[in-house]
Write a sequence for this structure.
């Protein structure tokens, strides 16, 4: 298993050329496609549905697609995104009435399952669900928009989550999303993250490879 994964958020990609831009960021060395789904209900923005995910597969994108559902309710879209080619689907505990059932639904659809915690949402539910998830996504901005600043108190939350994962003895990815840049990625990794979503930092630069290489150089300094 690769130690660190870089997952560009295509929320910041060129939507008029989504397939081409996604392939370009993968060719530049990205590991995973991070796919942000917003419903203008759970979050105040509206983005992409399952047809976009299928469109990327039809275009020829073969990399893992990591779907972050910022929607409520979740279950119908879980099924639709699994059919559309998602590999991982992550959901917010406060967006579904029956979290355990929704996590099981993701797995029954053949995907890995992630749980996402907004900045001020407690880690408490992990006590009950950690044995069933493959990924924990810690939001380091309030969800809804790219280009926001990393919230500093999240570093402590990442460290607390890392301890819970290590104590569980399970292989669980610890993903961080929001305000990840070249100059803070090492600090976020030192706190315990091993998967990094970056939207504006990568797609806002004219040369994606330069940013991804610089991020990997920073990660190489972390033991
Ligand atoms: O989920 C998100 C927002 O809800 C985005 O993935 C996230 O904000 C990444 O964008 P950036 O790297 O520009 O902060």
């Amino acid at each position: 298993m690769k130690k660190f994964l870089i997952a560009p958020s295509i929320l910041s990609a060129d939507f008029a050329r989504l397939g081409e831009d996604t392939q370009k960021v993968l060719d530049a060395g990205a590991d995973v496609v991070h796919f942000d789904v917003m419903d203008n209900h759970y979050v105040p923005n509206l983005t992409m549905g399952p047809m976009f995910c299928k469109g990327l597969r039809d275009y020829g994108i073969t990399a893992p697609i990591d779907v972050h559902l910022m929607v409520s309710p979740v279950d119908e879209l879980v099924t639709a995104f699994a059919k559309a080619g998602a590999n991982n689907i992550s959901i917010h505990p406060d967006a579904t009435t029956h979290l355990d059932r929704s996590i099981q639904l993701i797995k029954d659809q053949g995907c890995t399952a992630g749980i996402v915690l907004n900045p001020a949402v407690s880690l408490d539910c992990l006590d009950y669900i950690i044995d069933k998830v493959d990924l924990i996504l810690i939001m380091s901005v309030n969800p809804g928009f790219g280009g926001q600043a990393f919230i500093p108190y999240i570093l402590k939350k990442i460290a607390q989550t890392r301890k819970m994962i290590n104590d569980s003895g399970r292989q669980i990815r610890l993903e961080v999303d929001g305000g990840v840049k070249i100059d803070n990625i090492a600090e976020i990794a030192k706190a315990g993250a091993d998967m990094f979503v970056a939207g504006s930092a990568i797609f806002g630069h004219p040369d994606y490879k330069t940013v991804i290489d610089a991020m990997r150089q920073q990660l190489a300094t972390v033991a």
In short: The radius of gyration is 16 Å. The mean pLDDT is 98.
